[in-house]
Automatic annotation (TrEMBL):
Pfam families named among the record's database cross-references: Zincin_2
Signal peptide: none
Protein name stated in the entry: Hydrolase
One MF annotation (Gene Ontology) recorded for this entry: hydrolase activity
Region (Disordered): 415-489
Keyword annotations: Hydrolase
PANTHER family documented for this protein: HYDROLASE, PTHR39420
Length: 489
């Protein structure tokens, strides 16, 4: 077995010749598919000519794109691509000093927050993560958020391509780049299974791209506004905090402390308001399930799919084929979700400001920088918009912060934090428009509910009294007495 040549062009030709004996005319397409998933065939071969075991490994990598995963999102594809994207701009391992610094900042943040809110600490560990560690911990949550619309999209894709193929096999489907494997083609698979696998793979690529990009932007585990961890914890991503601080006038230690306060405040809220996590996820799921797929637009895009081009695959199931906001229910759900996200961000912003102002000289400009950053969004948020048709952006976070500031000024921390006592107390758009009227509206709502409860209690009481048995003798129907009509006397 001879070594491959050192010259890149010669190496490429040698590799292509070796693969041609297995893949034939589709060699270029297969190589393109491998590279689209971040796999370098030459690197996988370790610099020597391919042997059968190595070639089988290469083919397994490619086939996994289409045949692995049972759910609407191909988790393996999502995981692999997210890890690749996360390290694309560098992801150095954290030093011991970086880890200790981040954990100390989170501990200090908890002390400051104790003086600003009655919500106790989350109770979880304080952690410092690399970008790759953030991906590993949060990817399951992103897959859960995307799953409802991914399932609908996979069904739509199966319908569109199934109409093209009919009831036969996939061999007649004109999709450039359809990979062929020794002993058969993926086209030999059941059409519905193949199309759902393809949809699952596409969404796996979308989720992986978005999660990997987010890992280069986030400062912790909570600053995207939805809970992403299954267990309580506070987290900082020091590499991203450092990159953000480098463009500011504030020293790194101060920036890190401010981010730690925000992270710890988020964690307290998500842990000690038990209904909030389910409320946010339910709104995302409700919105996603209401999305309709424009089958005509999808069919038009599918005609031009190049299976060797990841952008072509991702574009085929982009937000352009979603029938967005097409019902009153969709609009109402979106408004409730945006309001809930704004309330989370507004409360965290207000509590973090209260906690950090006595200690951090640059807390005010840092708060404004974060507000602008959240309002503008980023490329990953745009990707999730194409995934589920919505942006996880707190559009009215300033209004929400003003509401919490008003409650703090008029009723203290107890009144501000009491908003989270029950879902019925959650402010709505009217409260964001008119913060001073929040208390009066909730008082009127409580009075109305009390009247309803009293009326129901009266009805049930009367019903119970009418059904109580009388002092009937044995064998005599309860409630009948002498001389009653129909007793035969």
């Amino acid at each position: 077995m001879s070594d491959l040549p050192d010259d890149p062009d010669e190496r490429e030709r040698a590799l292509r010749d070796a693969l041609h004996g297995i893949f034939g005319e589709r060699t270029d397409e297969v190589l393109g598919q491998m590279r689209s998933q971040g796999l370098d065939p030459a690197a996988l071969m370790g610099g020597v000519a391919p042997d059968p075991a190595t070639m089988q490994h290469l083919m397994d990598q490619l086939q996994r794109l289409f045949t692995s995963g049972e759910g609407p999102v191909n988790t393996q594809v999502a995981h692999d691509l997210a890890r690749q994207v996360a390290v694309a701009e560098g992801d150095p391992s954290l030093t011991g000093a970086q880890g200790r610094s981040a954990q100390e900042a989170l501990s200090v943040a908890e002390l400051w927050l104790d003086a600003a809110t009655d919500l106790p600490p989350s109770g979880g560990p304080a952690r410092a993560w690399s970008r790759s560690e953030w991906v590993e911990a949060t990817l399951p949550a992103w897959q859960q958020l995307v799953a409802p619309v991914a399932a609908s999209a996979a069904d739509a894709l199966a319908t569109v391509l199934g109409d093209q193929v009919g009831d036969g096999d996939m061999s007649g489907l004109d999709l450039p780049g359809m990979p062929v494997f020794p002993g058969g083609s993926l086209g030999d698979l059941d059409p519905a299974t193949m199309m759902r696998s393809l949809g699952s793979a596409v969404y796996g690529m979308q989720v992986g791209q978005a999660a990997g990009t987010l890992s280069r932007e986030v400062f912790g585990a909570t600053d995207v506004g939805v809970p992403l961890l299954s267990e309580p914890a506070t987290v900082l991503v020091p590499t991203n905090v450092r990159a953000f601080a480098d463009g500011l006038d504030s020293p790194f230690d101060e920036v890190q402390l401010y981010m730690a306060v925000r992270e710890a405040a988020h964690a307290r809220l998500f842990v000690h308001v038990p209904w909030l996590r389910a409320h946010l996820h339910a709104l995302v799921e409700q919105y996603a399930r209401g999305i309709t797929i424009d089958l005509d637009a999808l069919e038009a895009q599918v005609r031009d799919i190049d299976m060797a081009d990841p952008e072509s695959l991702r574009g085929a199931l982009s937000g352009d084929v979603f029938g967005l906001h097409n019902t009153a229910e969709q609009q109402a759900t979106l408004l409730r979700l945006e309001t809930a996200l704004a309330l989370v961000e507004g409360w965290v912003s207000e509590v973090a400001a209260t906690a950090s102002l006595p200690h951090l000289p640059h807390s005010v400009p840092l708060r404004e920088m974060i507000r602008r950053r959240r309002a503008a969004g980023g490329p990953a948020e745009q990707t999730f918009k194409s995934l589920v048709g919505l942006e996880l952006r707190p559009r009215r976070s300033r209004d929400a912060a003003a509401l919490f500031a008003h409650l703090l000024a008029t009723g203290g921390p107890e009144a501000r934090d009491a908003v989270w006592d029950h879902p019925d107390l959650l402010p709505g758009t009217e409260d964001l428009d008119d913060p001073p009227g929040y208390a009066a509206r909730r008082a009127a709502q409580a009075d109305e509910q009390a009247d309803v409860d009293a009326a129901l209690a009266q009805i049930f009481s009367e019903s119970t009294e009418s059904e109580e048995p009388g002092d009937a003798s044995p064998g005599e129907e309860p409630g009948t007495d002498e001389g009653a009509p129909g007793d035969g006397r």
